[in-house]
Amino acid sequence: MKSLFSSADFSKFPCTTMKILIQNKKETALGCDVLILPLLEGEGITSYKDINRSLNNMPDKIISSGEFNGKLSEICLIHTGGMIKPDRLFLIGLGKRSEITAEKLRQAGGKASSYLSGLKIKEIALSVKTIASLKQTPIAFLEGALLANYNFHIYKKEENHKEIKKITILTKEKLEKQIKWTEAAVSAAHFARNLVNTPSNDMTPSALVKAARSLKNVSVKVIEKNEAERLGMGAYLSVARGSNEPPKFIVITYKGKKTAPVVLVGKAITFDSGGISIKPSEGMEKMKYDMAGSAAVLGVIKAASELKMPVHIIGILPATENLPGGKAFKPGDVVKTMSGKTIEIISTDAEGRLAVADAIEYAKRFKPSAIIDIATLTGACSIAFGNEAAAMMGNDKALMKKMMDASLETYERVWQMPLFEEYKEYLKSDIADLKNVGGRPGGLITAGYFLKEFAGDTSWIHLDIAGTAWTDKDKPYIPKGATGIGVRLLLSFLR
Ligand code: BES
Ligand code: ZN
Ligand code: ZN
Questions:
Q1: Residues lying with their CB under 5 A of ligand 3, a single-atom ion
Q2: 375 close to ligand 1 (CB < 6 Angstrom)
Q3: Whole-number mean pLDDT of the chain?
Q4: How many CA within 13 A on the CB side of residue 424?
Q5: Residues 45-54: contacts with CB within 8 Å, 24+ apart?
Q6: Is the confidence at residue 1, as pLDDT, over 70?
Q7: The domain 185-494: what is its CATH number?
Q8: For the chain, domain boundaries
Q9: Would you call 413 a catalytic residue per the annotation?
Q10: Active-site option among 267, 288, 353, 364
């Protein structure tokens, strides 16, 4: 059967199309469906005395009655009955003034836009008076609103377009530059979410090639199976053996500056069944998200090229499926990596590190200033962090400090794990240079240690996003499904 989107028609995919306008106008004078008024907990309607007066003190009464207190993400929708120009007011709580953070603004923005899009409202306006009194930029609120405005509907017969189409920000501040950045970053995150949400019958290694080729101002080179064999990528190719989908080793270059590149390696297992070491069937459907690292890399390059960022990025996506076909690799096999190191396969389900190891080795050809790999590498990562943080490991303290800063800025949190020398012992094989599994204890770390053996002296960071790339529950600005994790983090890191 021809699959629905075998042509991987990315033009059909939902992306941020919310148009953003800035107007320096009075709140009461703007005709719109809904005007959003962010309010602080315990501070009443003080920033909007004129609106309150025009509505015969109704907002004030709602607050003094206790119906709305301004607690974080608390909401109240008021119809204005023609007494002022906006049809409705939407009060959204920001929490206490003393406790405000950019993340809280993001969450409040997300709550506002997901609630209003649920009501099928298409055009909204935002007053930033309260936020301005906090000396915070309203951009975080906007970012949350844009990130939440996402709905993956293309596989449903009834296309359900819930997205908000336009937001007008009432301010006299010059926000254009920040808005441009935020729009590009959010649209890249949505692009990544689309790729990850797309089922693996459509999101094949070949579809990832198309996704890479859909980006502008980049060059894309695909190393096919034969060439990968010639290059000696025996670890990556062993994973591909059990599948009939041709593997594609994708190399994307965006050269915004003539310097040594930063190489971004993204795990690109378009479906991970576990192979011969097959996974339990319960929850296996989610293993389409095992290419979330590669989606993040594509998202980052898309935004970097749109923003004409002065950076040189090379993205490497060693794409393949991991299936238990008749030619599949097996536990006990020994495979040879491009680096020359041999690996004893203990579990065919520890396939990500095999593909990423060859990609890291290949990355060194470009004499990069740094290699960052991003991968849904271990179940042990979500055991350690739940859904809250990506694990970070690496061999360059200063670089990891920069990643930590980017993580605090974007709230795409990372947390460092150690790569003590003692972990080397865990990966010792009787028959080969390394084995691909170090046992259950320390499973998150030994996966990172395995990759360290290939990074060698090159500055390198490993990000395990197994716990954060997917959410089973709606979050304030991340609807359930693919999260798009890594895109905003790496963009901020590169900046
Ligand atoms: N893709 C999985 C890791 C994963 C698990 C990602 C759950 C997202 C959610 C990876 O290839 C894998 O299967 N790892 C094994 C390694 C083990 C065999 C050492 C794991 O974590 O169980
Ligand atoms: Zn696996
Ligand atoms: Zn995997």
A1: 269, 272, 290, 352
A2: no
A3: 95
A4: 7
A5: 47/129, 47/130, 47/133, 48/127, 48/129, 50/26, 51/27, 51/84, 51/89, 54/28, 54/83, 54/84
A6: no
A7: 3.40.630.10
A8: 10-174, 185-494
A9: no
A10: 353
- Rounded-to-integer distance, Cα 152 and Cα 203, Å: 15
Q: Is 353 a catalytic residue?
A: yes
Tell me if 427 CB under 6 Å of ligand 1.
no
Instruction: Look at residue 4 and tell me whether its pLDDT is greater than 80.
Output: no
DSSP string, 268-329: EEEEE--TTSPPPSTTGGGGGGGGHHHHHHHHHHHHHHHTT-S-EEEEEEEEEEE---TT--
pLDDT 10s digits, 85-123: 999 999 999 999 999 999 999 999 999 999 999 999 999
Distance from C-alpha of 288 to C-alpha of 267, rounded to nearest angstrom: 12
**Nearest ligand, CA 447:** 1
Per residue in 277-314, pLDDT tens?
999 999 999 999 999 999 999 999 999 999 999 999 99
Fold of the 10-174 domain: Leucine Aminopeptidase, subunit E; domain 1 (3.40.220)
Closest by CA position to 227, among listed 255, 243, 246 = 246
Residue 141, CA distances (Å) to 105, 111, 127, 491 in order? 5, 10, 11, 19
Give residue 379 CA to ligand 1 midpoint distance, Å: 5
Atom from ligand 1 closest to the CA of residue 346? 18
Which residue from 200, 378, 387, 445 has its CB within 8 A of the most atoms of ligand 1, so it is best to mutate? 378
- Which residues, listed in sequence order, are joined to residue 435 by a DSSP beta bridge? 344
482 lines ligand 1 (CB under 6 A): no
* CA–CA separation, 130 and 60 (whole Å): 16
Check the CA dihedral 451-453-454-459 and report its sign.
positive
Identify the band that residue 16 occupies on the pLDDT scale cut at 50, 70 and 90: low
Distance CA 441, CA 428 (A): 15
If one counts every other C-beta atom within 10 angstroms of the C-beta of residue 208, the result is 25
Which is the closest atom of ligand 1 to the Cα of 376?
6
Residue 352 token pair: 């990500």
366-400 pLDDT, tens per residue?
999 999 999 999 999 999 999 999 999 999 999 99
